[in-house]
Amino acid sequence: MPDPFDFEIPKCYAVMGNPIGHSKSPAIHSQFAQQCGIELDYTAVQVDPGGFAQAVEHFRAAGGGGLNVTVPFKVEAFKLAGRLSDRADQAGAVNTLKFGEEELYGDNTDGVGLLRDLQSNLGVDLKGKSILILGAGGAVRGILAPLYESAKRIVIANRTVSRAQDLARHFSHPSGVIIEACGFDALSGQQFDVVLNATAASLEGQVPPIPVDIFAQRALAYDLMYADKPTPFMVWSQTHGASQAEDGLGMLVEQAAESFHLWHGQRPQTGPVIQALRAP
Q1: Long-range contacts of the stretch 50-55 (C-beta < 8 A, 24+)
Q2: How many other C-beta atoms lie within 10 A of the C-beta of residue 83?
Q3: Cis peptide before 272 (omega within 30 of 0)
């Protein structure tokens, strides 16, 4: 007779951030779990500033198996992790935590998520392209290293120029790619093949103060933010010369798939999930 108590209690997983109410991560991981036949408890947890380390420890003590980490806690997660993946170490930021028996492992899946969305889902070839990144926050740390493996030139523009300069110095690389830093006003007269909006302007219904002629021919505008309708940056870009404008939903799903693989050892299909999330 089977033992009625012989079953495994599913570990808990969550995304932590502030704000977090808009997060689609619970829906994404629920669909991944259904694909892979995994019983999963995944929630969204809002954490007050200054309370991240305590929230992580409480979650772990309650049976947590891992966490996704979003703004503004990615750098705190980096400092909290006892062991880091190479890409997390390079980024100086962590968006995925895995709880081991004795250590906290930190990874950063943002960069691979962006590349998979650009290359596999959108068919964008970054080789030899000039890329403009708007913003210099934690999200940029995760995407810079993968980008300079393909791009010809990368410019980081930020309202506070010193933050952009710090990132450019941190990610300088002997591969030959040029990483520059400047303020928004210094972009006048320049054009780019790919413009990535990594600011929070779209959440506030705004667009970064960039020149109207910033897009080269057949340029892509990509907002790392996502919404149920085109973001202000996407709308602005399409009216000012961008041939293609996309949001960051595909990146969100792709980076989540990488986290899911880290936790569960299975790689889910992302296409059906992206399609389901975009359905009206």
Answers
A1: 52/16, 52/76, 52/77, 52/80, 53/80, 55/16
A2: 13
A3: no
Measure the CA–CA gap between 186 and 96, rounded to whole angstroms: 35
Q: Using the 8-state DSSP alphabet, how is residue 40 labeled?
A: -
> CA 106, CA 97: separation in Å to the nearest integer?
5
Decide if pLDDT at 4 tops 60. Answer: no
Query: Tokens 């969204």 label which residue?
Result: 44
Instruction: Give me the pLDDT at residue 173, please.
Output: 66
**Domains in the chain, start-ordered, CATH in brackets?**
12-108+251-278 (3.40.50.10860), 111-247 (3.40.50.720)
Burial class from Cβ neighbours inside 10 Å (0-12, 13-18, 19+) for residue 53 reads middle
Catalytic site includes residue 74: yes
Check: pTM over 0.85? Answer yes or no: yes
- Mean pLDDT for the chain overall: 92
The percent of residues above 90 in pLDDT, for the chain, comes to 80
Residue 146 pLDDT: 87
Return d(Cα 196, Cα 246) in angstroms, integer: 10
Decide: 97 and 106 in contact? Cβ < 8 Å.
yes
Give mean pLDDT, residues 34-58. 96
Q: Which of 11, 24, 74, 98 is catalytic?
A: 74
